User: What shape does this take?
Amino acid sequence: MFKAAFWWNFALIVFFLITVSLGVTLYVFYQMNAETLMHLQELSDAQAVKNGELMVKQNELEEFKKKIDGEETKKTVQELVDDHAAVMKKYAENFTKSNQSYSSILAYLFNQMQVQNFTLDANQQDTLDLTAFNENRTKYNSIAMDSVKKHTAIFTEDKNVYAKALAEIEADLNKQKNDLDKLVKAAGTSTDSIIKKLNNDLTKTNEDIKVQMGKNIKARQQLAKNDTRVAEKPNGQIQFISAAQGKATINLGSADNIPLSASFSVYSRSETDMKNGKKKGSIQVAQITGLHSADCIVTSDNPSDPILPGDKIYSPVIGDRHFAIAGFIDMDNNGINDVEQLVKLLEANGAVVDGYQNEDKQVRRLEETTDFLIIGRRPDESAREEERMTFTNFTKAAHEFNTPQLSLDQLLQDMGVNPDRSSVIQGGVDTRPIPYTKSNYSGGDVSGLYKEDRNNSNNENE
Assistant: This one.
């Protein structure tokens, strides 16, 4: 009985232990299974995210391929990479490695197109300018021909008047000679000496008449020439401008006999009359750089109407012009006579000064070939008689030769000169606001495309 109870209790204990062990094992299994399912769910969620990102990247890749090779491209990425390498080799071989890209090529082509468009616009404007100039020249030639015809008729009339007067003088002298012969014969004296004197008087009278006729001819010719001086042509044009540095390049150089420190007024490229046109600014030559090129300093400009490539330049002094100067010359309004500085300024710009007034002294004189008489301040009644007489001599000669008169202010304005100070350089007045040195001169670091276009322009001018 006792043994049966023992084994029964033992069996219960064993069953209890087995049950506890199975329970623990089952609990652990379920716990591990829950963690595994949770991990699997996390992996599934992460994979879904990666799949979404992959799909976005794939869509971006397809869009990028379409942008590179067209809307319906079927090329692989490797094929597109090969195409890119071929394009870079063909169009961007000279580019640096960092710039070998489609955007760099597009930027280069766009800049080139801009330069070509600018050149085309400039050529079109030049064509319009040439057409307008030819129209003006035709009109002015017609005016000149009418003037020549008018003055020819006046000269012919004057010639007839002189011829008639000469005939009357000769007839009168012959009559006097005959009357004198009669008187001499009646007095019984020789007439040889008297006849010789009369012949000499007649010869001198003829010479005086011829001289006067010659002066009249030259005066008429000069008047006709002045009538054609309706419009002044530009001397050249601006090729390059750096507003920030105040520098400009023009298409005139050593072959054009442009002197160093020459000054020019600047006018719009559309302006056809430099004498009466609206001035935009002024420049001064700082360095002759070639046969048809020179670097200049901008001495004045208007920010609301800036100087641009293609604008025209003009100076009344350039071109072997002859000048005379009369009156008191005060260029900088300091009350001191600046006539010597004005002479040097004109000569530094290539002009010839035929004569000038230095207070009451006359240095040389105004010639028939003088192009302009520059008028300073006229002497008033308080001036010395010699000073007034010298001024009158110049103005009287200008009237006789029909020489145009130009005020000092107008001359300086047309030349583009701003005489803020009177120090003299290169034989002329230093009007530059910034001294020209290597440190403030542009080194020419501009676009290669522009350099090529500028060189072509220089070669064409040469």
Residues 236-315+435-461 form a domain with the Thrombin, subunit H fold (CATH 2.40.10.410). The longest strand covers residues 279-290. The radius of gyration is 48 Å.
